[in-house]
Backbone:
């Protein structure tokens, strides 16, 4: 089959893990492909994905082949597959806008940004690069809080005619203004804010759903996360966290039996711990009442490598988006968005979203 040609905005840890995975699974077969939700989607395997364009703003990455740039600082994720062949795709300078938090420009740490000394491209130039590359799908990996930059690249995707996968918590797919525009142009979109394979949000949702199904009244809960990658460093600026908190909180509220009052639910990033690097640690507590109105509580500690956890979902989102392109489906991909994203246009339980996505893959559901 033809390759699925993708363009990437932000060649950070998550993009690095995705590209490593594309190469890693080339040497695997279905019966030993650990870590995938789907080995094949519509005939497409992980190895059928190809990066044909990439944009970043870090001087250590811009101007280098993707195969080299993906391992440059400030990236610090686990390298599980290092023998990445030259791609022939050179990382281009992207548009800065609000893609970097002010406090990171002068942060004295090797894991922060080194802003490239390059002229920023215009929207017309980026659209031209995307079209000339032959890219079919644009992946947004911008930092949390990049509201203007995310909208800018959504415009680029629309003008270039590319499918759009919004991995970040800036509301595009779940905003009617944008979803209508993608629908009108017949371009598929998956979003917003990627769920990890086994991460803090999916675990929290599963437990909240378990409480509901088992008749336990959930009274209060928190989810506190720490990490040492640039995502957590970026989120030290609390002003950039508004949409992130909404996304993570709504993901849990949507599966609870009853919505919790704001003072009884706290979900979101907590702090930056440099030595953790790409390891994310989640501390989760849930309090409730069970049979006889007797109180109970649960505490959980989850430790995961953040970026491979994300890539294991994105690799399916890409292939589902490609199926939509092949089938001429435009607008929101409702089922994949509900299964893969924290803040889709419409929330479903994860069991329902999984079933619906499998039906979409099989061609039994339009979106």
Residues:
């Amino acid at each position: 089959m033809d390759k699925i040609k993708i363009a990437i905005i932000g060649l950070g840890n998550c993009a690095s893990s995705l590209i490593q995975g594309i190469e890693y699974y080339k040497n695997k077969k279905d019966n030993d492909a650990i870590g995938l939700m789907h080995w094949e989607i519509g005939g497409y395997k992980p190895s059928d994905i190809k990066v044909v364009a990439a944009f970043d703003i870090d001087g250590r990455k811009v101007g280098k082949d993707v195969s080299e740039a993906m391992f440059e600082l400030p990236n610090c994720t686990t390298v599980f597959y290092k023998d990445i062949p030259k791609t022939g795709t050179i990382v281009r300078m992207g548009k800065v806008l609000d893609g970097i938090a002010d406090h990171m420009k002068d942060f004295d740490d090797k894991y922060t940004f080194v802003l490239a000394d390059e002229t920023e491209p215009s929207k017309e130039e980026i659209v031209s690069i995307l079209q000339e590359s032959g890219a079919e799908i644009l992946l947004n990996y911008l930092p949390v809080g990049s509201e203007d930059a995310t909208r800018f690249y959504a415009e680029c995707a629309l003008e270039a005619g590319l499918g759009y996968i919004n991995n970040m918590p800036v509301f595009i797919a779940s905003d009617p203004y944008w979803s209508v525009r993608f629908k009108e142009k017949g371009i598929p979109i998956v979003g917003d804010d990627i769920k990890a394979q086994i991460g803090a949000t999916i675990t929290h949702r599963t437990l909240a759903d378990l409480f509901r199904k088992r008749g336990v009244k959930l009274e209060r809960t928190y989810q506190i996360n720490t990490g040492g990658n640039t995502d957590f460093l970026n989120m030290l600026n609390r002003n950039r966290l508004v949409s992130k908190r909404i996304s993570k909180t709504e993901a849990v509220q949507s599966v609870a039996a009853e919505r919790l009052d704001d003072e009884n639910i706290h979900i979101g990033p907590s702090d930056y711990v440099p030595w953790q690097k790409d390891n994310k640690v989640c501390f989760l507590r849930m309090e409730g009442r069970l049979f006889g109105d007797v109180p109970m509580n649960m505490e959980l500690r989850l430790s995961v490598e953040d970026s491979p956890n994300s890539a294991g979902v994105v690799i399916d989102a890409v292939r589902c988006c490609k199926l939509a392109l092949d089938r001429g489906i435009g607008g929101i991909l409702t089922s994949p968005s509900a299964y893969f994203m924290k803040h889709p246009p419409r929330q479903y339980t994860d069991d329902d979203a999984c079933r619906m996505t499998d039906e979409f893959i099989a061609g039994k559901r339009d979106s």
Q: What stands out?
A: The chain is about 35% helix and 20% strand. The chain has a mean pLDDT of 96.
